[in-house]
Amino acid sequence: MNEEKNTISKNQKIYFVSDFHLGIPDHDSSLKREKLLVRWLDEIIKDAKEIYLMGDIFDFWFEYKTVIPKGYVRLLGKLAEITDSGIPVHLFLGNHDIWAFNYLNKEINIQLHRKPVIKEFNGKIFYLAHGDGLGPGDRGYKFLKKTFECKLNQWLFHWLHPDLGAQMGLYFSKKSRLANLAKEGKKENSTPLQDEMLFKYSNEILKKEPSINYFIFGHRHVPVTAQLSETCNLIILGDWITNFSYAVFDGNKVKLKFYKSN
Ligand SMILES: [Mn+2]
User: Fold this and answer.
1) How many beta carbons lie within 10 A of that of residue 106, not counting itself?
2) Which of 24, 32, 72, 206 has fewest C-beta within 10 Å?
3) In angstroms, what is the span from residue 220 Cα to ligand 1's centroid?
4) If you measure from the C-alpha of residue 145 to the centroid of ligand 1, how many angstroms do you get, rounded to a whole number?
């Protein structure tokens, strides 16, 4: 393994968060979640050494050569302020922000990751990924992912007028199962742990790389912590639609927490 080594000092922390899906189910409730997220970021920057956004910030995002979707200015501004202050922000591109190209990096200096990354913090080894398309099965989704990742399809889509392209994207995201769950305030159903694909996937990787201490994923919208071995834990981050959950590494342990709004 060829992981990067990092040290965090006593009062510093590393934060992991994912699946905001801003844009659904409608403008007003998305804005409410965005403001909450900004408030949370304001609180954590006091001790954050690094921030990992583990994917699906937006429910629909597409970058044209000169145009990006309207909205999200509070979050984007806050993230710019954070990276300007010297705190690194990483984004693992999820299945919903697959069409983020280089704007977020160029404009906001966010470090983009399209593949799983292995990192070492204070001697602990972390396997980080959004979590889509990993593990066995899910063939239909894997086909769709290939279609969306296809350069030719992206090139064809970018020739649509942005109002048309973005409207198509938003149309599908507002009709999605996730948007309906968000509207009704319902949580994603959890799968029994043994059947959870990210559980199976992590166990497979762990067999090959037994030194990994933490697997951290987003994608599933269900907050999960599970012990995989004496020295290894799996954390699935949940979401910021109904769970408002995140994970924090204090230099020694990772804990899954819930941000209480009031
Ligand atoms: Mn998601």
Assistant:
1) 9
2) 32
3) 6
4) 14
